[in-house]
């Protein structure tokens, strides 16, 4: 597609690890499509240091001051989760599009409040769920759309990661009020988003959570069974207690099994297609030539810039940005109540709508 003749003016808000490791490296990959104009952090010295390291021309200690001085087209928001609502709202009010790190917000209520600030044609807010943007996922979704693999029946979505006690020494981690949840929210939401992008709308979830070993208020492990409108069923496990780390997704269709195993990002080599014994066209099932696009921030950012050029809602915003958070909410509500939760029941005024964790729960055991 044809891109804007003028580069998109981008500001990065937050000078922590995610900005340094993911966002700032992804921006140069966009070439002359973007120009990074400013970096913001409440720690002025840290903002200046990181700006100097990445050749960002100006740094600020205040978001409002930066927006007034720079008028960026797009803000990448890399602050801790509890600051997302104010940060996104402030940027949208100033007319800037926003690309917000996960977890998007601390509740469905906050997500819906932010949606009310968007306008037709922009500005919009999109959320960082970069795993749905790799070429392997794109190929699989097309095969599902055409019915090439048959009907979806069974899926597995296991995020088995390891985070030690030192990881939770960062003050905002492990708390309902500042992080929004445990591995279901902060780690497993990426693979869960990819699961939903392939299988579509979910209908009901039954879950348990536990705080087995980490010094946190939230869960450190969760297990759920999810049923989809298609009739397919999925097993979902999210853990920060697993020394051999892996992110594993498996999709069993009537005519093939498709698997993805990686850790924090995948390429085409991480996918496998296995035809069912009765499948006759084995080349078709696994052999779609594509230009490889690894999953990652750069892949999603490129898509976001395309949407900006067209002034249309970007992927993983609006309804798409909400669906994974609905599943997170359903898992927490089911675990807290001991009952299955229907997606249709996650409406304003319902339990856990205003807070992913609902009422504060006693740490130290299954919920």
UniProtKB/TrEMBL annotation:
<dbReference type="Pfam" id="PF22725">
    <property type="entry name" value="GFO_IDH_MocA_C3"/>
</dbReference>
<protein>
    <submittedName>
        <fullName>Predicted dehydrogenase</fullName>
    </submittedName>
</protein>
<feature type="domain" description="Gfo/Idh/MocA-like oxidoreductase N-terminal">
    <location>
        <begin position="8"/>
        <end position="121"/>
    </location>
</feature>
<dbReference type="InterPro" id="IPR036291">
    <property type="entry name" value="NAD(P)-bd_dom_sf"/>
</dbReference>
<dbReference type="InterPro" id="IPR055170">
    <property type="entry name" value="GFO_IDH_MocA-like_dom"/>
</dbReference>
<dbReference type="InterPro" id="IPR000683">
    <property type="entry name" value="Gfo/Idh/MocA-like_OxRdtase_N"/>
</dbReference>
<dbReference type="Pfam" id="PF01408">
    <property type="entry name" value="GFO_IDH_MocA"/>
</dbReference>
<dbReference type="GO" id="GO:0000166">
    <property type="term" value="F:nucleotide binding"/>
</dbReference>
<dbReference type="InterPro" id="IPR052515">
    <property type="entry name" value="Gfo/Idh/MocA_Oxidoreductase"/>
</dbReference>
<feature type="domain" description="GFO/IDH/MocA-like oxidoreductase">
    <location>
        <begin position="139"/>
        <end position="256"/>
    </location>
</feature>
